[in-house]
Design goal:
The chain is mainly α. It has 21 helices and five strands. The strands form two sheets. It has a three-stranded antiparallel beta sheet with strand order 3-5-4, with no helix packed on it. A two-stranded antiparallel ribbon has the order 1-2. The relative contact order is 0.11. About 8% of the residues have low confidence.
Length: 539
Amino acid sequence: MNATTLLPLPVVLPLFAAGLKLAVGLRLPRIQRFISAAVLSAVLAASVALLVAADRDGPQVMHAGGWPVPIGIALVADRLSALMLVVSSAVTLCVLVYSIGQGMADRDEATPLSVFHPAYLILVAGVSDTFLSGDLFNLYVGFEIMLTASYVLLTLGGTAARIRAGATYIVVSLLSSVLFLVAIGMVYAATGTMNLAQLSVRLADLPAGIRLVLQLALLTVFGIKAAVFPLAAWLPDSYPTAPAPVTAVFAGLLTKVGVYSILRTQTLLFPGTRLAEPLMLIALLSMVVGILGAVAQTDLKRLLSFTLVSHIGYMVFGIALASRGGVAGAVFYVAHHITVQTTLFLVTGLVERRGGTTDLQRLGGLARISPLLAAIFFVPAMNLAGIPPLSGFLGKLGLLRAGVADGGVWAYLLVGGGVVTSLLTLYALVKVWNLAFWRAAPPDLCADGTVLETDDDDDQDDSDEDTPMPAGRPESASLSGRSITTTAALPRTMLAATMALVALGLAYTVLAGPLTGLADRAAGELLSRTPYVRAVLAR
């Protein structure tokens, strides 16, 4: 079978299944879960086949409806987009299994969870569309599909905290969408096409000033979506309020779609960029400001949200270098970070379920209460911090080597900033380990995992804001004016899904040779541009 026939499947299958599941509703919950898992498994299989074909035969292209460029919309899977599809498909499948274990589809009567599975599948379709799009306007459509679903997922349950966070997220997203439309209009007015391959040719003929304006417009849009400094203030206040599976997939994927768009447009449309130094400054500030914010946090969700902003800086670092080593390092680091960041947010959901909170001042003794939970936190935490020989270390090492090879002043500043950021990341995560896992349990956390919480207004607000959606509700009773909540054993399905992602992160270390080779070939393909352009414009 020709691999090009698989190109629509990562987009079409989730959309079809979402419509089917809306029709099924809550009447057949097992069918709901089966459809979701089967569809995402099929998307993963198709993505792997596309990656093999793209690496072996070059970019795979399909023109929707058989219409030629620039009338039709092209779907393109080169090494970069196919790799992103494989990683995102694996991650979304594991998060879905986790959410099934947590009982999000049918256990919480206060939450309209009948819409979770359809919204989640629509989100997956939007992410896939952005990775496969060979057309600037279709890239916009992919973003909007993804964002529309994210509005639903972020506000699941309708609690006050989630509505507030959702309002901020929606306003920022709508603003970036409007700016994206304006940028698209400017690009079309200047070139007469939206096709990325044609744009790579026609933009080169424009005056330098016009080309710079278009580049700045697109960078601003994608910078908001990628949450680079100073366009990232919305993220730490938006993500932590959502349920654990939603926060995990948002942190792992949504910002990386913005990074992917920056990488794609900077290499294909604006090679030899005049914005290398501003991008390096943005990367440096994202790394340093983000990690300083993380160090100052006492809530695990917010701490991880700030590390997310910080580590986006590493990816922009590689893009700004615009060398083969830098771009290869960025590609490797994106794949690594999607997996590890998602894993840590899933572990955070387990910590919240076991300890009753994500406030580090109220946690403790988890290593003794749940050694398995401690282990599955420790491994991805050290991976994010870049401890040898894990993939986080390998990705950072590749970027630092590319910076030293560049030899410029800004490159050396980024190398220094990257080292400092890595050390501060280690400090922040060791703080989490010491407070939540290693030290003795505080007075309101009993040795058996029983959590004592006061019934004052502040605690009530906190519980409303951070309430997880467990598979089975904890038993509770009143005891001398204090509520006592006994956390149940962690569901095996949730643990299995999280451990699968931990194993995937470790696989990046075991398979570092083939993965770095693939990232290097993807970087060469991106920087040469010729294979992509020829494949798309062949008809």
